[in-house]
TrEMBL record:
Pfam families: Glyco_trans_4_2, Glycos_transf_1. The keyword Transferase applies. This is Glycosyltransferase involved in cell wall bisynthesis. One of its GO terms (biological process) is carbohydrate derivative metabolic process. It comes from Colwellia chukchiensis. It comes from the Bacteria. The lineage of its organism: Bacteria, Pseudomonadati, Pseudomonadota, Gammaproteobacteria, Alteromonadales. The keyword Transferase applies.
Length: 369
């Protein structure tokens, strides 16, 4: 079959969808990937997998009607040019405009993968609430005739059903994007001072501000503790500015290590992986840290809670609760004898329910491939 995969951010294609693309191609299917214009390196990696690449115009953030109309038209043209047997779209813009293009072209095998609800589903001021209403209406229309809607956690699935955005019989759940446990091999815990690590796009809803505040408080008792932050800046309305990060660094709260292509050395160099996010689909970086063998400190919220068995491979804290985050960080610092046990538990979970081969097989079965 001819499969069209539509994403938005080109730099995440290989890391997040590379194994799925490889799975489809190994089964004999032809795969074309669409995203915003990609670098020559990303395109070369896709070609090495055996996939084709087609760029299109898409703004990941914002609701500019002129840009979104261009996105819709570009996807519509791709449907005519490629004549795919199946389409799989993921993230908000590809799903909404890919679904609407399917309506227009009467294409009847459109499939969506909801990788998280994101900023638009967060309650806030009148502007955010208005955006949320618009997004929900667009989701509902774009998913009306979707063959399948795949979710990465049960909470998001139930949310869409309860809001009437998708029908229960359309909706399936898989365990995130899965993790390649061969690529992310278990690594021994490092020696040296206790190191906490957070990897994420620099967004407020990733809990980065809470992480920085907690780091400041913890370092008053344990000044030798290290708090590292890795990830790219973002253009979202929820973005964290370079000035804010510089202020944290100047105050000695944390070390910002920038955006990196390979997170494995940073995961291997930490003791406790931390993600105080407000919401997730199922956090990829947590799965990577689990596979490498690290204790997890994250929030008791959608997506994140699916990665932790409390006391076994880590702990959960309430969203936006700096005091609870501080107390659990202090516990980790004061109980290093528990780190190896939690590390091994994380690895076993990664090898079991989060294994990428099993996740990809589930997706292929849902899509009837």
């Amino acid at each position: 079959m001819k499969i069209l995969i539509i994403g938005a951010y080109p730099n995440s294609i290989i890391g997040f969808r590379g194994n799925l693309i490889r799975h489809f191609i190994a089964a004999g299917h032809q795969v074309t990937v669409m995203s915003a214009p990609a670098s020559a390196d990303v395109i070369a990696q896709l070609h090495a997998l055996g996939a084709s690449f087609r760029p299109y115009r898409v703004a990941r953030n914002g609701l500019n009607p002129f840009i979104d109309l261009q996105t819709l038209l570009d996807i519509k043209r791709a449907y005519h040019a490629i004549a795919p047997d199946k389409v799989l779209a993921y993230t908000i813009k590809p799903i909404i405009w890919g679904g609407i293009a399917a309506h227009i072209t009467r294409f009847d095998n459109f499939n969506a993968m909801i990788t998280g609800l994101g900023y638009a589903f967060e309650k806030g001021n009148w502007l955010r609430n208005s955006v949320s209403l618009i997004v929900k209406c667009l989701y509902k229309f774009s998913l009306l005739k979707a063959q399948n809607v795949i979710f990465q956690n049960q909470d998001n699935r139930q949310c869409f059903i309860d809001l009437g955005l998708a029908r229960a019989e359309q909706c399936y759940r898989v365990f995130g994007s899965g993790i390649d446990t061969q690529e992310f091999k278990q690594q021994p815990l490092p020696t040296g001072e206790v190191t906490f690590l957070l990897i994420a796009r620099l967004l407020g809803d990733k809990g980065i501000r809470e992480y920085a505040q907690a780091a400041r408080i913890v370092k008053q008792t344990y000044p030798q503790a290290k708090f590292q932050l890795v990830g790219p800046y973002d253009s979202s309305p929820d973005k964290i500015s370079a000035a804010e990060v510089a202020q944290w660094q100047a105050g000695g709260q944390l070390d910002y290590l920038g955006a990196v292509d390979d997170v494995k050395p940073y995961l291997a160099a930490c003791h406790i992986y931390t993600l105080p996010s407000y919401h997730e689909g199922l956090p990829r970086t947590v799965l990577e840290a689990m596979s490498i063998g690290r204790a997890i400190l994250t929030t008791d919220t959608v997506g994140c809670r699916d990665t932790v068995v409390a006391g076994a491979n880590g702990y959960l804290v309430p969203v936006r609760d700096v005091d609870a985050l501080v107390q659990r960080m202090l516990w980790f610092i004061e109980h290093p004898e528990r780190w190896p046990q939690m590390a091994n538990s994380s690895r076993r979970m990664a090898e079991g329910q989060f294994n990428v081969a099993e996740v990809n097989a589930q997706i292929a079965k849902i899509l009837a491939l």
